[in-house]
Structures are given as C-alpha cells and as structure tokens.
Specification:
Blueprint: H1 8-43, H2 45-48, E1 66-68, E2 72-78, E3 81-85, E4 94-99, E5 104-107, H3 117-121, E6 128-131, H4 137-140, E7 150-152, H5 155-158, E8 161-162, E9 165-167, H6 170-173, E10 183-184, E11 188-190, E12 194-197, E13 202-207, E14 216-220, E15 225-229, E16 235-239, H7 246-259, E17 265-268, E18 282-284, H8 285-300, E19 311-316, E20 319-323
Parallel strand pairs: 5-6, 7-11, 15-17, 16-20
Antiparallel strand pairs: 1-2, 2-3, 3-4, 4-5, 8-9, 9-10, 12-13, 13-14, 14-15, 17-18, 19-20
The structure holds zinc ion.
C-alpha cells in the first residue's frame, strides 16, 4: 500500500493565508482602542452622535460668575472653593480650585492650550498643584504650564513613565494627530483613595473608572463636594471612549452612593444645566442614581437607545448616556 503525500508546495499558500488571518486578528484585537480613537478623532463624535441631542443647551439669562483675565468665568462655590469655567468655548470645561492654608489644588488644567495662571493669580498666592480627573486632552492640555502635577497611582499611569516622565498614549490623550501627546513629570503620585493635604483642608482622590479606566473624582468632605470630571456631568456622558466601561461605571456609582453623605453636591467638568442660566455644572446624588439605573438598563438590554454604532440612551432631564455598539464598552 502506498501512502498519499500532499506536496508541501500545495499546502504552503493555505498556511500563509491562515497565518496572515491570525496576525490580522491579533492586530485587530490589540489595536481596537487605537483604531477607535483614530476613527472617532477623524470623523468626530458629533457626526456620529444620534439624536436627540441635549448637548450644549442654550440656557437663558446671563452666565453666572465674574470674568477673570478676560476669559475665565469664576464662581465662588464655598469659602476657598472656586469654579473656573470656559462655558463660552468648545469644549466647555469647568476647572475647580480648592485653596488650603499652605497650598491650593486645581482640578483639571484647562481645556485648551491656554494658561490658566492669570486667573489663578487673582484667586490665590499659594503654590498650586494640578490634578487631572483623567487624561483626555480637554483635561490635560494645560498641564504644560505646571511643574506641580499630581496623578493617580495606577498600573496604567505608572506604566506610561519613561525616564522619569509620563508619556501619554494617543488613545489616552484623545486629540487630533496634529497635536503631540503630552510629556510631563509627576510631582505627587496619589494612591487610589489617597489624600492630598492643602493645610487645614484635606481632600480624597477617589478612583472612579467608567468614562476612562484612570478617572478620578476629588472628594472634599468638609465642604460636602465631589468633583467628578467626566464620570458624571450635565449633558451627554461619553461611555464609548477607548477605555470606557459600563461595568466600571456601575461599580463606581454603587461605591460612591455607598460612601458619600446624602447631601453631597456634585460638580462635573462640562457645562451646562439646561434648566437655568449657564452656571458651574452641579448635580446631586439623585443624578448619580439616575446614571446608575440607566447603565444597568443598558447592560441588561432593557433600555431603548437611538443610533447604531453609537447609541444614545436617556438618563434624566439633564443627561443622556452615549455608548458604543451593543457589545462595546462592557
Ligand atoms: Zn472632558
């Protein structure tokens, strides 16, 4: 009996094709966040965003607060506590300044390539440390003007350090390719739930993933305030970014609702409430409960959203929640 031998030449193309497919699959799986970042940056979230859009509602009346340095809209929220907003711009961020007895903490650094120091100089003469609530460009663009920078100490942030400096990845920074990703030195690494002491005032840095994996919220227990960045704010929550996660959103909301006093006021990073003149974007724990319910409904398949690739779901009168296609961002 003779054995049938398949010539090597006949199987080679098949093996090559399978290897190519496997390699393509690997690249796709490992590069999905980056591919998504490129797509969303080049086409724009707003082009993809399904209606109805409560984005940038037009509030009636004058904007609250006074203007400093010809640009920054400043409101005093509590003694030594300021909202410093850019509600007239796009992105329409709000930064927050907490002043202690020996130093001050700035939460987020400014949405644009604009130095916030002229406004800070009118509010405090103490040294200012800045902490970004997360690493997206509209929260880290102003870091270039600071040499005192605090950052959450997580494997994802420590892993970006080379030769003593943090080099943000494109999918973390999320800005057009024309804008180089920032490189900066961290002067203060803060462990999750760690404290920052400002002199007579102590705030806690809570790890609050959801919008991104490294997002933080700053809790000021003495003032009863929580500064949440883009985890929760008025208008549309972006739960579709490269490292957004609905299950993390759910866990974060549960944890915050369990540990925060019921009268805690929330201040988010984007403007504006649609039921009153433009003001620092405040919310309550009921809004956080509403976000939790919306996320749970999306995850269980019970919520009805609009859109296809990006889907928008209702939260309440002040917020909607935008997620990626159904299997994304779990
Ligand atoms: Zn933002």
């Amino acid at each position: 009996m003779t054995k049938r031998v398949i010539p090597l030449r006949a199987t080679a193309p098949l093996v090559c094709a399978m290897a190519l497919l496997a390699a393509l699959g690997m690249v796709t799986v490992t590069q999905v966040p980056r591919i998504w970042a490129v797509l969303s940056l080049s086409m724009g979230h707003y082009v993809w965003m399904p209606p109805p859009s409560p984005l940038k509602p037009t509030p009636g009346g004058a904007m609250a607060g006074r203007v400093l340095a010809g640009y920054w809209r400043v409101q005093t929220l509590a003694p030594g506590t300021y909202a410093i907003g850019e509600p007239q711009d796009d992105p329409d961020n709000y930064e927050y300044l907490l002043v202690g007895k020996s130093r001050a903490l700035l939460i987020d650094s400014g949405a644009h390539v604009r130095d916030i120091h002229p406004a800070l100089a009118e509010l405090t003469h103490l040294p200012v440390t800045v902490i970004p609530t997360h690493l997206h460009s509209d929260h880290t663009n102003g870091l270039r003007y600071f040499d005192r920078i605090a950052l959450i100490d997580l494997p994802e942030t420590r892993g970006r350090v080379t030769q003593g400096k943090v080099h943000l990845a494109r999918f973390q920074f999320m800005a057009p390719y024309s804008q180089p990703t920032p490189v900066f030195a961290v002067s203060e690494w803060v462990k999750p739930d760690g404290e920052i002491y400002l002199g007579g005032r102590r705030v806690r840095v809570l790890s609050t993933p959801g919008h991104t994996a490294t997002s933080v919220s700053i809790h000021d227990p003495s003032a009863g305030l929580l500064f949440t960045g883009d985890m929760i704010y008025t208008t549309t929550l972006f739960a579709f970014m490269p490292d957004s996660s609905l299950s993390a959103y759910l866990a974060t909301a549960d944890r915050l609702l369990a540990i925060l006093p019921p009268d805690t006021m929330i201040y988010g990073a984007h403007c504006c409430r649609n039921d009153r003149p433009a003001t620092a974007p405040w919310l309550t724990l009921q809004d956080l409960r509403d976000v939790r319910s919306a996320v749970a409904a999306v995850m269980s398949g019970k919520a009805r959203g609009q859109g296809w690739l990006l889907k928008r779901y209702p939260v309440n009168a002040r917020m909607t929640l935008a997620t990626f296609y159904p299997l994304g961002n779990r």
